[in-house]
Amino acid sequence: MDEQETTSTAPAPQVTGLRPVETSARLAGWALLLAGLGHVLRAGWELALWTAGEPASGPPDRGEGVHRPLNGLESSYHFVTSLAAATVVICAFLFIGWLWRVRDNSVALTRESPKYLGFWVYLGWVLPVFNLWIPRGVVADVYRKSAPGRDLPAVLNVWWVLWLIGLACGTGLMYSDGPDRLIERAYTDVWMLLFSEAVMVGAAVAGFFMVRAVTKAQLDRIASLTAEQRIEG
Description:
Elements: H1 2-8, H2 22-52, E1 61-63, E2 66-67, H3 72-110, H4 120-123, H5 134-146, H6 154-176, H7 179-188, H8 190-232
Antiparallel strand pairs: 1-2
Helix pairs in contact: 2-3, 2-7, 2-8, 3-5, 3-8, 5-8, 6-8
C-alpha cells in the first residue's frame, strides 16, 4: 500500500537548465534555404556557361598556375560562387548553433549523457569517414532524447541521404576545386554539376523541415513536462 502511494505521488521530472531554441531553429531553417538558393544560383550560371560554350581560347586554368583572362560570364560565375560559399558559411554557423542548443536541452530533459561528445558537433562534419554518419547520429540522439519512444522522422533520413549523395557526386569536389576548374567542368560535364546542385537544394529543403520536426518534438516534450510540474505544484 505504501509503495502504491509513493508511486502515485512521485513528483514530475524538474525541467531546468533549458535553453531557448525557437529563434535559433528559425534562423537555422532559413539559413538552410538560403544555402539552397546559393546552389540554385550557381546551377543557373553553370547552365549559362554550358549554353555559351567554351571559348576558342580554351579553359581558364591552363595548368601549372597559368590562367587566361576571364570573360564577363566567367567573372560573374566567380562572384556567384563566392556568394554561394558565403551562404554555406552562414548556414553552418547557424545550424551548429541550433544543434548545440537542442543537444543541451535533450541532456537536461533526460539527465543522460549524450551519445556523442561535444567535439563531434563540429568535427563530425569535417573528418573523413566519420562525416558519413556522426552528424546524423548527433541529430538522431537529440530527437530520441526529446521524444522518447517515437520513431525518427522520415525527413531526417531524407536530409542525410541527399547530403551524402551530393557529397559523393560532386559537392565535395566543388569545395576542393577552384572556380576556374568548375568553369571547365561546366563547359564539358555540366549535367553532373547540375545534378549535384539539385541534390543539395533538396538536402537544404529537407534540412529545413528536419530542423522544424526536431525542434517541435523537443518543445512538445518541454511543454508536457512543464504542465506536469504545474499540476504537481
